[in-house]
Amino acid sequence: MTTREQVLQALAAVRLPASGGSLVASGRLSDVVVEGGRVMFSIAIDATEAQAMEGVRKAAEDAARAVAGDATVLATLTADRPVPKGPSSTPPARAGVQPGRPASPPQPKAQGIPGVKHVIAVASGKGGVGKSTTACNLALGLRAMGLSVGILDADIYGPSMPKLFGLHGKPRVLSGRILEPLDGYGVKVMSIGFMVEEETPMIWRGPMVMSAITQMLREVAWGELDVLVVDMPPGTGDAQLTMAQATPLAGAVIVSTPQDLALIDARRGVAMFQRTQIPILGIVENMATFVCPHCGETSHIFGHGGAAAEATKLGVPFLGEVPLNMTIRETSDAGRPVTALDPDGAHGRVYRGIAEKVWGALSGGRARVAPKIVWE
Question: What is the distance, to the nearest Å, from the Cα of residue 43 to the centroid of all Cα atoms in its chain?
Fold first, then answer.
């Protein structure tokens, strides 16, 4: 069995391009985790070094693989923590920064995903606001418009896509480390939930999370996609920031409930993406209105209109509101999403309307109309 010490010894031979010093001695290397047939670590970089340090990442991954036996090796670059001070790590001065004003940090040149035209993030400042349900139905809404769509479940700690799409089984290995995504109502789906038991807790540190996300993002046979929807982890921590910096995101959709407590966190989500220079495609107000199925009375359990007002305040688009409805909950729990079952129904039209606005922002043109698909 491979040990952490063996991996560190192999990584000590990897040299940094500028100084020629050892990667291990540079202080850039995260803790090396050897667990469950995987070897995982990350390398800290300044955002401006992403392209130059990609060769170091590959060399480190190859060195670890040479001693890892049958274990899978996952190495990532991360700009979410300070780079150790040194001649080779001092970022160049930037012109045009006014004294006393914080500058937006320079961004790494994120590598594109072959065949994928647009990658969008669905995010929330906190959990429990219906982000994953929104991401699932947004993807299906785009699919109903005739687009080729995939969805990546990057919510490692709480993967929901297997349940939402009613999918079971493990992805098939096509060649080497390339996985074949599963098909959910015409959408290509990849999730860590396909590879672990449903009750297994994901007690992973940040580098392990980013390594898993990187593998699912870049070592999956996505094929030709118009849009890849990424269901982000909730919050604005290391994983979210690194994902935003290292992924070629065309924009982000923020999901929030109308209540003030959720909107505070939604603002943080908007600020994070703006800081990383990723366009905000808009805000969705989820669980906006509840209509009693017995008496027909309308209740605003979490308030109403808060997300729309927040979008106006922040100067970003408002994509629409989704009601708090038992049909959406029941179909989601059953793995038969409402937008797949009835895209022309009342709730399906809500998600399709959101999808049309998102695609309009991405393409700048009119969406294609697909033949109506009825899923039995």
Answer: 20
- Does pLDDT of 97 surpass 50? no
3-class DSSP state for residue 338?
helix
Judged on CB neighbours under 10 Å (0-12, 13-18, 19+), 218 is middle
d(CA 240, CA 309): 25
Query: How many of the other CB atoms lie within 10 Å of CB of 232?
Result: 31
Closest-CA residue to 281 (of 360, 223, 204): 360
Q: Which amino acid, one-letter code, is at 265?
A: D
Residue 138 neighbours by CB under 8 Å, 6+ apart: 122, 229, 253, 351, 354, 355, 358
Which residues make beta-bridge pairs with 182?
Answer: 189
CA–CA distances in Å: residue 354 to residues 110, 135, 145, 245: 27, 11, 12, 25
Helix axis angle for 238-246 and 260-275, nearest 10°, is 40
* Nearest alpha-carbon partner for 257 in 300, 302, 292, 289: 302
- Please name the residues in contact with 223: beta carbons below 8 A apart, sequence gap of 6 or more: 115, 148, 188
The pLDDT of residue 104: 42
The mean per-residue pLDDT over the stretch 261-281 comes to: 78
Higher pLDDT: 288 or 136? It is: 136
326-333 and 131-144 helices, crossing angle to 10°: 90
User: Alpha-carbon distance 178 to 220, whole Å?
Assistant: 5
Question: In this predicted structure, what is the pLDDT of residue 101?
Answer: 38
224 burial type by CB count under 10 A (0-12 exposed, 13-18 middle, 19+ buried): exposed
**What string of DSSP letters covers 42-84?**
EEE--GGGHHHHHHHHHHHHHHHHHHHTTSEEEEEEE-SSPPP
Sign of CA dihedral 72, 73, 77, 78: positive
Per-residue DSSP letter, 202: -
Confidence at residue 374, expressed as pLDDT on a 0 to 100 scale? 42
Across the range 209-236, mean pLDDT stands at 86
Distance CA 322, CA 328 (A): 10
* Separation of alpha carbons 270 and 268, rounded Å: 5
